[in-house]
Amino acid sequence: MVVTLLFGLAVRWAGNAPASFLHGTRPVSNLINTPNIYSVIVAILAGLVGVVSLTEARANALIGVFISVTTIPAAADVGASLAFSSWHEAWGSALQLLLNIALLIAVGAGGLSTQRMIWHRRRTRSPGRVSSSGPGD
Questions:
Q1: Distance of alpha carbon 8 from its chain centroid, rounded?
Q2: Whether 71 contacts 4, CB under 8 Å
Q3: 107: Cβ contacts below 8 Å, ≥ 6 apart
Q4: Cα→Cα distances 40→5, 12, 34, 37, 45, Å
Q5: What distance in Å separates the CA atoms of residue 89 and residue 105, rounded to the nearest whole number?
Q6: Nearest-CA neighbor of 32 among 110, 86, 85?
Q7: pTM surpassing 0.85?
Q8: What tens digit of pLDDT does each residue of 38-85 get?
Q9: Nearest CA among 46, 56, 51, 28 for reference residue 101
Q10: What is the DSSP letter of 39?
Q11: What's the sign of the alpha-carbon dihedral 35, 36, 38, 43?
């Protein structure tokens, strides 16, 4: 957010910002600063992918990509909107960022709790089951 704010201020002060941008025509920004049902769906999917990736011991770049998709654009748009004194857009982007973070945390915690409950049930249903990863395997 800070880097984007500083870059936006530098572009604005140098006089290199397009006139339409100065007048508030920013289609990508408008997509980011108006949270809707698709924002919720993307954040939920990112949380699910993160939980599955972590618990399946397959944490890789995919989890970073999904989390970045939900947080970086909104955070950058806060900085850019502030640099161009677009207070309404900055507020919308901040709400988008907070929504995404809250959903990532909620879905992650819910997913981990659900997996823990399932694993606990599986262990209690088959107490005589021998693990295949013990010594000598």
A1: 23
A2: no
A3: 43, 44, 46, 47, 48, 51
A4: 26, 33, 12, 5, 9
A5: 24
A6: 86
A7: no
A8: 888 888 888 887 777 777 666 566 667 777 777 888 999 999 889 988
A9: 46
A10: H
A11: positive
